[in-house]
Amino acid sequence: MHQLTDLGARDFAANSRIRREGTRNLVDAALAAGVRRVVSQSIAWAYEPGLAPADEGTPLDVHAADEGRRTTVEAVATLEAITAEAPEWVVLRYGMLYGPGTWYTTGGLMASSQLPYGPDVTSFLHVADAAEAAVAALTWPSGPVNIVDDEPLPASTWAPAFARAVGAPPPTPSTPTPTRTRGPAAPPTPTPAPSAGPPPTPPSSNPSLNPPSRVERLPPSSPSRGFRRDLAAGFHDPVGAKGSDPALRGGGERTGPGRGAARGGAGAGASSRTGGQRPGAGAGA
Prior knowledge:
The chain is an alpha/beta fold and about 280 residues long. It has helices at about 10-30, 65-85, 125-135, 155-165, 225-230, 235-240; strands at about 35-45, 90-95, 95-100, 120, 125, 145, 155.
């Protein structure tokens, strides 16, 4: 299980090195020890730009014009290619993590950063759902999987509400760059390759943990979880804020694998971008 990143100091070069060299060392050691299955953390905002939803078959943006974004996406592609050397493997393309211990919490990095503003879209993911997906992936067919909630939000919607919830300065509207956003979509059902390994794990009694396709929902640890719903509830669970934001009420059923992710947009920032959100503004890389 490869969930290692190096973002504590926002050192994106170090994080890319973890993806390239750290993954190489880990997978080499795992295969030498006879490990058959490798599950690695990736990101859901490394896709090529576009207006339609991005599913797992959408190419990664390895030819991005922006050097910083290209470096990040190349490192992501390297991580995924090395992971796929295992006999069985799953790449978890996480959305933007929020919740306790993340940048998106009271006192977190985003609470003191300039928030983005505009039409560009971000796919979010609560850390509890990320952990749940990692466990479920132990029995999934090999391949990459988008792990996001099912309601990507434009920065013009989520950023002002997030600022109110955590007591941060409101985002400042600016002239938007050309937008190439990605929203939720169900990708085609993959056909798992036959495995020469041990017999498959018997199906779970919970059908949502048996992914015959990549559109099965994970069982919600909270029936109302989702970035929109958490914000509408005052973000009291992730960040401890009180109250409710009427601008965000409704919508946001939380789902797991198989949802399309917000794509990287045009004019990417220093390292990576979710539908136009710069990692320097807290997008992560």
